[in-house]
Write a structure and sequence with these properties.
Elements lengths: L10 E6 L7 E5 L4 E5 L6 H18 L4 H4 L12 E3 L4 E4 L12 H4 L2 H12 L1 E3 L6 E2 L4 H11 L4 E9 L6 H10 L4 E4 L4 E3 L3 H8 L5 E10 L5 H14 L3 E6 L4 E6 L36 E5 L1 H4 L21 H14 L12 H9 L2 H6 L12 H10 L5 H8 L2 E5 L15 E2 L5 H5 L3 H8 L10 H22 L16 H15 L5 E5 L10 H13 L3 E5 L3 H5 L3 E6 L8 E6 L1 H5 L5 H7 L24 E9 L2 E9 L3 E6 L5 H16 L12 E4 L5 E5 L12 H4 L3 H9 L2 H5 L24 E4 L7 E4 L22 H5 L3 H7 L4 H12 L16 H9 L18 E6 L7 H16 L3 E5 L3 H6 L2 E6 L8 E6 L1 H6 L4 H8 L28 E7 L7 E6 L3 E6 L5 H18 L4 H4 L12 E3 L4 E4 L12 H4 L2 H12 L1 E2 L13 H13 L10 E11 L3 H9 L4 E4 L2 E4 ...
Parallel strand pairs: 3-18, 3-19, 5-17, 17-18, 23-29, 23-30, 25-28, 28-29, 34-49, 34-50, 36-48, 48-49, 54-61, 54-62, 57-60, 60-61
Antiparallel strand pairs: 1-2, 1-4, 6-7, 6-16, 8-11, 8-12, 9-10, 9-11, 12-13, 14-15, 19-20, 21-22, 21-24, 26-27, 30-31, 32-33, 32-35, 37-46, 38-41, 38-42, 39-40, 39-41, 42-43, 44-45, 46-47, 50-51, 52-53, 52-56, 55-56, 58-59, 62-63
Length: 1880
């Protein structure tokens, strides 16, 4: 087995054909750093991101539910033959997709999480009123402070009391005196005795509300320490946490308080918990801005964008328009009255006048609140917006206001995001937000000086771990050149390169291992000086056991790689080959590698011989320049600089030195502002003067050129219109009546109508990636077939779009204007692009180069642009994404742009670009506050000579030269690399305190099978699932979008100090439930979800009445149908006939953008979830519910006389609805669907677009309305269905007799097929002219279903759509065959499955994903499995381990532990007595460990039989019912089987999983015995049971056995199955057991309760009368917060007791109702021993090992084993004797049927269970247990084995008799496993 990553093979990709890749084979070594390079467009991203990453992400994400997957950003399944050993993949791309303001650098790196933990331990609280430190005092600290301040002084210790409004002081002091006190002090400082009635009466008359009761008087001397502490403790208790200290006069000395309480201001503060310092927590977030730090308000810069305009010219934009134009007239009238000029530019008006225009007249401002406006006073622009704010219920007003709103700093928290209380905590005079505002470099220096406390505690250790994580992450950020950022910097403002490097460091912090990290040019934006540091960070990831694949062009990054791949040799169609594969030394000698050629010096980028001259200072005719003086912004302060014009200028400097600030804020934003345009954030400066007035100022960034697929390079450079004109002028085109507009794929009559000229259609696949299929009508050509016959030089218009730019150049050589524009594309290196390639598919570098094309004009004309035509072109790192060869070509383009008279200003780090510039301006010398200065300005050659600057050092050598791999191992100066390395081969959990874990530390080895065991409730699931699985999934999910993450049910962050070495995790949890009544094999394997998707996308609907297929209709046919409807005689009944187009169908979301789109397009009405509303009345919908939205196109009745209008309206509706529309009458009822896709031409029956929910029997859209998807009519449905006479008759519910029947009948409407008639009549086409519906398909077994799918008769479009769906189905069903479940039909109800079958299905669904490099966490996978099947399971787990996975199994099975590499034993007890690591190691080590209870049982086992002997089996006696006999059972796989069971014995039923045990005993024997007891018949026949007994689903009315005898003598049948207990927080063991009703009755019978009229219901925490009002009886309060998980805190009012104070005053036997709920069952057994029934139930809980649970413990906190045993006790309690039976000595016995009661039980708990079962048998009961556990089988008095296999091969009783006989049975498959157990 593998022990480390290096033991595993490489990732193997075979036959990769993604995009332009040419069927290549690639091996990627695991655990290494791999660089992938090549020319731009050669196919690097296709290989790395679209193939390698897509496959790694897809395989892991497929372990999530289908519901979750539909919200994730799923990548398309790549086109390749095979992929092996692919790891879960995280892509760190060079783009910023973060939009939320909550995300910051601190949250991205998790630094805020660690800071809030550390800060909560080290910060000190200060009173915001007095500024004094607030401490949490106790008697000892009060003594120390007092002794220090007033040594030897006499003091009085007192506490304060307040007089309630309803009491007087006389009553108050009587109560105080009764407590033994004798003196008090008044507020005025006078002593009085409590027995001085005159003084008290006089005091009462003064209406004082406060007095001070004297606790003690003493002198502050060391000998009085004990007395002082006792007095102080009492005073604090009675003073509600506050103590008052007086001197002997008495004068107030000081106040002290326990808890964080300011004695000066009286304010109490929360303790410093981490959540208080989190703006993402409801506890810590500012209540005003909810933690965003910003609020949205009117931005008057948007309302007055150009203040150079006058009022008359329209300076106030909101007033420019018809809607609010009257306001402008109001303003002009006010201006005339107030003598304010309306023609003077606004910025030249006096400040007073500007203030009046914006704020309004003073008179109006006074009256504004009362709205008492006289109509004359000017209300101001602010008043106008205030008036609009009151009308935001109108849609158009909200849209209008949104244009003028912007975010501003929250005035409540001043942008700190935290609530005021959190800002009172300081560390070294810093608030936490203050630390977040510091540059990371400075923050690191400050925090690293923190001195740890000398006395370590658990709390200090938490702080230390957080502190170490803070330092390491800050160090990482510094090392990748991001020291200038602040932690509070919003993530959405970061550049793509910054996001990539921040994400890279956050990945280091997650401690993920065995993960594939895919990076896209992380060196972008990084100065050459910092590249070595970046390489170190990448190395840290690989040293931790990860694989890092980097798409890169930087020399140093490539040469430092362990393995290099070059894709080429050329871009586009000529690329896609592996040109080179090997190490850096081999690269230098590879002649085929263009990268190697540049590195070896065979090729190079030459330095220009001459640069365009420029001098900083010149006399007379000085060169043109931009002169900037006194510029200040960010780290640039008072900067003076001259920037040459008509030159090639580069801004250089280390990352964060101020380059972007200089270009964007100082230069670009200021130039925009000077020209009257809106500038977002310009710098402040003294002056900026341009030597040349530019014709254009443009920032050419890497943002997409277009976001739609309709724009392409030909359109962008304006050649497409010319090409269309060429085609339109062709004689053939004119002959057919075509014009130039006909050749447009966006509009016109020539484009394909079906796909609207796109050439493809998008098929939404929900939880699979969407599929784009070629349009079947135009075959992806985008145009009508007839148009394609028109040819130019043997090329159709579609052929032109398919040409590359280079090919098109050859074709259009005779068209100079067109040729010149295309040649410009060739010059910028984009000749490989196709003419019709959608621009939204271009990379950032390609987009940037495309934008440069327009500046390459006048190429062949010999002209140069005049200065008046000069543009200022600003570029930010244009070499991003470019290979050296591409850079060489780009430089030629940039030089030509300058030659054409433009000014080029570039931010760049690329040395080839820098050395080619005319002028370099370098900022520095460092980043952040140490930068922002000009350290060099001059020519590149001067910079190289001036080696003092960072850029100069590298320009001198043109980089660092070519180094081999070893030469790149550079350590940072004076830096020890060891903190970054983590070569540990284990998962390490440190300081886990979740639930009952007690600061647990544990290490689990990678790539091995580890078992976590321990007694039930010891904390196993908490460790495995809440901590390990939860953290592994959460850390991987951080790579997903924030939108997607909200739909993944992530566990909250556990309470632990540290977790490292975690792989991405997959959980296979223990679901003992077999699903709902509707659940089937298809649903729990997810096959049903895929089939629903398949039917909705490819199914052909048929008319349910005629059976005819619904076919596509043309628009002409639909128009004819509408006209027929309008002319028909019954059309008069339609007062309206609304034509609607569906826009949203069954999609979740608030859908505000859809409503805005409808409003913007002028539609007045829309239909939302079946109701017509006016568009302006739309309000946001519930984002978590599915909705349907249609837009109302028109009322056809109103235009019925105009055929052309009807035709246009229908065309518009079908266009909006993608081929579907509907008609509504005046009552909003659907009259008809109209569809070009599916319609019955004979009857006009049409359907809307099919949706997967149309095929779900769990959705009202798909289920049969009669049975609601059950396929059966159950008794509880009858009342609802009896109104329908025909239906009532068919189900037998029309009888006039009282209907007490529990009969279940097959649904007469759907005949048990569950779906409605429309969905049942959708068919998939099969070969041989056959078809099949979904219900019929689901009746098949896995093998039959796959065979059917292989015969699908589909066209090319259908095959593309079906490919991924069928692959997913095949993957799941083939694994079912592997685990031996091939016999199950897909519609088999899961309730009819055995426990073993259900367990194997779950394993099949999860283990079939073929993942590698993940951590599987399994919860008791052996449950429900026979020992033989358990062996098979272990082999499967071993196979997973050999693939390179790590497995953690929560298990009690001794066989599993024997095969484990490592065992972790938790204990020693359960609940609060557990949570500790008892033992860790191999099985032999565990057996030798004396502390391990597991080891003890594994070593010694359970001595069988526990009773010493087995009970004898008596022979059947005539006339005495001492045997149960079931004859000729024929049920499911049971055929003519006879069963005999002895009374008053312990019987075990065993056999292979799925053999028929549960069917025989639980479903058949249990039901028949219950009927025998109810009918009081000694013998019941199968016919009697079929007619009168409880119907068994699927067998209604069938005779299932011949006869049953010997069951009538039981009192009842008590069944303990695997159904779950209540899992709501309000469910508790006391309520589940039913004992709480009796307990509440005791409390209601108290005299005080009767006096107050309290009934038992009053003592329930679920009723409003007695529960705490604040928490509604929950004991905790939920703090909700938008976009964030809810947080729960203990209720302050009831302190978690759940009850109101009036109930807590009532005591019974010394305890109130909350105290009783807080008791353990061990305590309760003694407390309630006086009550026979309560005492017995409590004792049963103790005997089953649950004595440690409390009566009021919340059910969701119970483990699986605890819940199972609680259910067992509940059922056993039903069999206890009642009072009458006990008093009369009546002994009635029960038949107990238990199904696998050992689920979740440790061997020690099994021993307790065995004793309990024997106790039941000794009491005269008959106990039958269905079980696989060998220790329980070994206790059987009588044993039955069913087999020999599962399913159809089982169903036979192989043996029934005593245990001894089983051992010798040759038919038994259990005997071989039992013999070692009995011998041991």
């Amino acid at each position: 087995m593998p022990k480390t990553l290096s033991d595993l093979k490489s990732i193997r990709l075979r036959g990769v054909r993604q995009n332009n890749l040419k069927n290549i084979d690639v091996d990627i070594p695991l655990g290494k750093y791999i660089a992938v390079t090549g020319l731009s467009g050669a196919g690097k991203s296709s290989l790395v991101f679209e193939t390698l990453h897509a496959e790694g992400q897809r395989r892991y994400v497929e372990t999530f539910s289908a519901y979750t997957r539909q919200f994730l950003d799923l990548l398309e399944k790549p086109d390749l033959d095979e992929a092996e050993n692919v790891r879960p993949s995280i892509a760190i791309e060079q783009k910023n997709t973060i939009k939320t303001s909550r995300s910051t650098v601190g949250t991205m790196t998790e630094l805020t999480d660690f800071f809030k933990v550390w800060f909560s331990h080290v910060a000190t609280l200060f009173d915001p009123v007095t500024g004094e430190e607030i401490q949490d005092d106790n008697p000892k600290t009060i003594w120390e402070k007092s002794l220090r301040r007033w040594p030897s002084q006499a003091v009085v210790i007192a506490f304060e009391i307040h007089r309630p409004d309803k009491l007087d002081w006389v009553e108050m002091f009587q109560n105080v005196k009764a407590q033994g006190y004798s003196r008090f002090i008044t507020e005025s400082g006078i002593f009085h005795r409590l027995d001085d009635n005159n003084a008290i009466k006089a005091f009462s008359g003064k209406k004082d509300l406060v007095a001070y009761v004297v606790q003690d008087r003493m002198r502050l001397e060391p000998k009085h320490l004990g007395r002082f502490l006792e007095a102080a403790e009492t005073a604090l208790e009675f003073g509600q946490g506050e103590l008052v200290l007086f001197n002997s006069k008495p004068t107030l000395l000081d106040r002290f308080s326990s808890g964080l309480h300011s004695t000066k201001s009286g304010k109490r503060f929360r303790p410093a918990i981490p959540a208080l310092f989190s703006f993402n927590s409801p506890i810590g977030a500012c209540p005003e801005c909810r933690g965003f730090g910003r609020v949205i308000e009117i931005d008057y810069r948007l309302a007055l964008p150009d203040k150079k305009l006058s009022i008359s010219e329209g300076v106030i934009r909101p007033f420019e328009g018809q809607v609010y134009g009257e306001c402008k007239k109001d303003l002009e009238r006010a201006c005339r009255r107030l003598k304010i000029s309306t023609t003077t530019p606004f910025n030249q008006l006096p400040k007073k006048h500007q203030n009046i225009v914006i704020n309004g007249e003073p008179d109006f401002r006074k009256k504004r609140d009362s709205e008492d406006w006289d109509g004359n006073s000017w209300y101001g622009v602010k008043g106008f917006f205030g008036w609009l704010e009151k009308k935001t219920y109108k849609m158009h007003v909200r849209i209008f206001l949104s244009r003028f709103r912007a975010y501003i700093k929250c005035p409540h928290c001043n942008g700190t995001r935290l609530q005021p209380e959190a800002l009172c905590w300081l560390w070294n005079s810093y608030r936490l937000p203050d630390l977040y505002e510091l540059p990371i470099k400075q923050l690191y220096e400050i925090v690293s000086n923190y001195k740890e406390p000398t006395q370590p505690t658990i709390n200090h250790r938490q702080s230390d771990i957080a502190f170490e994580a803070i330092l390491s992450r800050l160090r990482y950020l510094n090392h990748v050149g991001l020291g200038y950022l602040t932690l509070n910097r919003p993530a959405r403002t970061l550049s793509g390169g910054e996001v990539e490097r921040v994400t890279l460091t956050s990945c280091l912090g997650t401690s993920l291992v065995d993960t594939l990290f895919v990076l896209d040019e992380p060196s972008v934006g990084l100065h050459a000086r910092d590249i070595d540091r970046l390489i170190q960070i990448v190395r840290t990831l690989t040293d931790s056991g990860n694989t890092v694949v980097v798409v890169e062009h930087d020399d140093a990054m490539i040469l430092a790689a362990d393995h290099i791949l070059e894709i080429g040799p050329e871009p586009g169609a000529k690329g896609g080959h592996v040109v080179f594969e090997g190490n850096s030394a081999e690269l230098l000698t590879c002649s085929e590698s263009i990268t190697g050629n540049y590195f070896s010096g065979e090729r190079s980028i030459e330095t220009p011989h001459n640069t365009r001259p420029f001098k900083l200072s010149g006399k007379g005719n000085e060169p043109p320049r931009i002169r900037i003086r006194g510029a200040s912004k960010n780290n640039i302060q008072n900067l003076d600089v001259d920037i040459p014009l008509n030159r090639f200028v580069c801004f250089s400097g280390v990352s964060g030195s101020g380059k972007s600030t200089l270009m964007n804020n100082v230069l670009y934003q200021t130039l925009l502002s000077q020209r009257g345009k809106l500038a977002e954030d310009p710098a402040s400066l003294k002056s900026l003067k341009c030597g040349i007035e530019p014709s254009e100022i443009v920032m050419v960034d890497q943002a997409p050129v277009s976001r739609t697929p309709r724009s392409n390079p030909a359109v962008f450079v304006n050649v497409w219109d010319q090409i269309r004109k060429i085609f339109g002028d062709l004689p053939e085109a004119k002959a057919e009546g075509y014009t130039a507009s006909s050749f447009s794929f966006n509009t016109g009559d020539g484009r394909c109508e079906h796909c609207s000229g796109l050439g493809y259609e998008k098929v939404e696949m929900q939880f699979l990636s969407d599929v784009f299929v070629p349009c079947p009508h135009c075959n992806a050509k985008r145009f009508k077939i007839g148009l394609l016959e028109i040819r130019f030089l043997n090329h159709s218009i579609a052929d032109i779009l398919d040409l590359t730019i280079s090919q098109a150049l050859c074709l259009f050589q005779k068209y100079p204007k067109l040729y010149d524009k295309l040649e410009a594309l060739e010059q910028v290196g984009l000749g490989y692009l196709k003419m019709g390639q959608p621009l939204n598919t271009l990379s950032g570098g390609e987009s940037q180069r495309l934008k440069l094309v327009k500046y390459l004009s006048a190429k062949n004309t010999g002209k140069t642009l005049q200065s008046s035509e000069s543009s200022f072109i600003l570029l930010d790192e244009p070499t991003t994404g470019l290979h050296k060869h591409d850079v060489k070509r780009l430089l030629a383009v940039l030089q030509k742009i300058v030659d054409h008279g433009h000014s080029l200003i570039i931010i760049e780090h690329n040395l080839d670009v820098l050395k080619s510039a005319d002028w370099i301006i370098e900022l520095g010398p460092e980043a952040g506050s140490d930068g922002g200065k000009i350290v060099f300005q001059g020519t590149p050659s001067d910079c190289a000579i001036h080696r003092k600057t960072e850029t100069g050092k590298f320009l001198k050598d043109e980089g660092r030269g070519i180094k081999d791999r070893s030469g790149q191992e550079l350590l940072l100066a004076a830096e020890d690399p060891s903190p970054y390395r983590n070569s540990s081969s284990a998962l390490t959990v440190t300081g886990a305190r979740e639930h009952n874990l007690k600061n647990l530390n544990v290490s689990i080895p990678h790539y091995q099978l580890s078992v976590v065991t321990g007694v039930s409730g010891s904390g196993k699931s908490t460790l495995a699932f809440d901590i390990i699985f939860g953290e592994g999934q959460r850390r991987f999910m951080e790579s997903m979008s924030p939108y997607a993450r909200q739909f993944v049910e992530q566990l909250p962050r556990p309470e632990l100090d540290q977790l490292s070495g975690i792989q991405p995790t997959v959980a296979i949890e223990q679901r003992v439930t077999r699903g709902s009544r509707k659940s089937t094999v298809a649903t729990i394997t997810e096959v049903a979800q895929y089939l629903r998707l398949l039917y909705s996308r490819l199914g052909i609907p048929h008319n349910p009445d005629t059976g005819d297929a619904l076919v596509s209709q043309t628009q002409t046919q639909l128009l004819k149908r509408i006209r027929t409807m309008l002319r028909a005689s019954n059309s008069s009944k339609f007062k309206q006939l609304l034509l609607c187009a569906p826009l949203v169908r069954n999609r979740k979301g608030h859908h505000q953008p859809i409503a805005k789109w409808i409003a913007d397009h002028g539609y007045e009405m829309m239909r939302v979830d079946g109701s017509i509303i006016f568009t302006e009345d739309f309000k946001k919908l519930d984002r978590y519910k599915e909705h349907n939205i249609e837009v109302v196109i028109t009322d056809l009745k109103s235009i019925s006389g105009s055929p052309s209008e009807i035709s246009n309206a229908l065309k518009e509706a079908l266009n909006r609805g993608h081929g579907t529309a509907l008609l509504l009458d005046q009552d909003e009822n659907i009259v008809s669907w109209l569809s070009t896709l599916r319609m019955d031409p004979a009857t006009g029956v049409a359907l809307p677009e099919l949706d997967p929910k149309d095929f779900s029997f769990n959705s009202h859209k798909g289920w049969c309305p009669t049975c609601r998807g059950h396929g059966r009519i159950f008794p509880w449905m009858r009342e609802r269905l009896e109104d329908d006479e025909l239906l009532a008759k068919s189900i037998g519910a029309d009888s006039s007799e009282d209907d007490d029947s529990d009969e279940v009948t097959i649904c007469p409407d759907c005949d048990g097929q569950r779906l409605n008639r429309t969905s049942r009549n959708v068919f998939l086409p099969l070969k041989g002219n056959r078809k099949i519906s979904l219900p019929i398909l689901l009746e098949q077994t896995p093998k039959e279903l796959l065979k059917t799918l292989s015969t699908l008769n589909l066209d090319e479009r259908g095959r593309i759509i079906a490919r991924d769906i069928v692959d997913q189905i095949r993957e799941r069903l083939q694994f079912m065959d592997k685990v031996g479940l091939e016999y199950l039909s897909m519609d088999r109800a899961t309730q009819t499955l055995s426990g073993g079958e259900a367990q194997r299905i779950r394993l099949a669904a999860q283990l079939g994903s073929n993942l590698a490099g993940v951590l599987y966490v399994l919860d008791e996978p052996s449950i429900g499995l026979h020992a033989r099947d358990s062996d098979r399971l272990i082999e499967t787990l071993k196979e997973l381990r050999e693939k390179g996975n790590t497995l953690i199994v929560v298990e009690h099975d001794d066989t599993m532990m024997e095969q484990a590499n490592c065992i972790v034993d938790l204990g020693p007890g359960a609940g609060i007595q557990g949570g500790e690591l008892i033992a860790e190691g191999t099985l032999s080590q565990l057996k030798r460990n004396k502390n391990s209870l597991t080891g003890k049982f594994l070593k010694n086992g359970i001595c069988h039989p526990l009773n010493g002997t087995y009970r004898k089996i008596q022979k059947p006696t005539l006339g005495k019912a001492n045997w149960i006999e079931l004859k000729e059972a024929n049920f499911r796989n049971l055929k003519n089987q006879n069963l005999k069971l002895p009374h008053q014995r312990l019987t075990m039923v065993c056999g292979a999983s799925g053999a028929g045990k549960s069917s025989l005993v639980r479903d058949l024997l249990g039901q028949a015995a219950a009927y025998s007891i109810k009918s009081k018949k000694k013998t019941v026949t199968g016919k009697m049971f079929a007619k009168n007994g409880k119907a068994i689903e699927g067998e209604e009315g069938n005779v299932l056995f011949k006869s049953l005898s010997g069951a009538h003598s039981f009192r009842s049948v008590i069944e303990v199955d695997q159904s779950p207990i209540g899992k709501t927080p309000r469910s508790t063991p006391a309520t589940y057991l039913g004992v709480f009703d009796t307990i509440r009755l005791f409390f209601s019978n108290l005299p005080e309760s009767k006096m107050r009229g309290y009934k038992p219901g009053r003592f329930s925490f679920n009723t409003p009368q007695g529960r705490c009002d604040t928490c509604s009886g929950a004991g905790r309060v939920k703090l909700e917060m938008s976009f964030m998980p809810d947080t729960y805190v203990i209720c302050d009012d009831c302190n978690g007791s759940r009850y109101g104070s009036e109930l807590l005053d009532l005591h019974w036997k010394g305890k109130n109702i909350a105290d009783v709920l807080a008791m353990t069952f061990e305590e309760a057994a003694d407390f309630f021993s006086f009550h026979s029934q309560l005492g017995e139930i409590m004792q049963l809980m103790v005997e089953t090992g649950l004595g440690y649970l409390t009566l009021g413990q919340s059910s969701p906190t119970l483990s699986g084993g605890e819940a199972q045993r609680l259910k067992l006790v509940t059922e056993l309690a039903k069999g206890l004797q009642n009072y009458t039976e006990r008093s009369r000595g009546i002994q009635r016995t029960n038949l107990y049927i238990l199904e696998e009661p050992t689920i979740g039980l440790h061997l020690s708990d099994c021993e307790k269970l065995i004793q309990l079962l024997h106790k039941l048998v000794n009491a005269g009961h008959t106990v039958v247990v269905i079980e696989h556990h060998l220790d329980l089988l070994a206790e059987a008095d009588y044993i039955v084995e069913v087999g020999p296999e599962g399913g159809p091969k089982g169903g036979k009783i192989l043996y029934q008799g005593d245990l001894k006989g089983l051992m010798t049975s040759k038919r038994s498959i259990t005997a071989e496993y039992m013999i070692p157990k009995m011998q041991g």
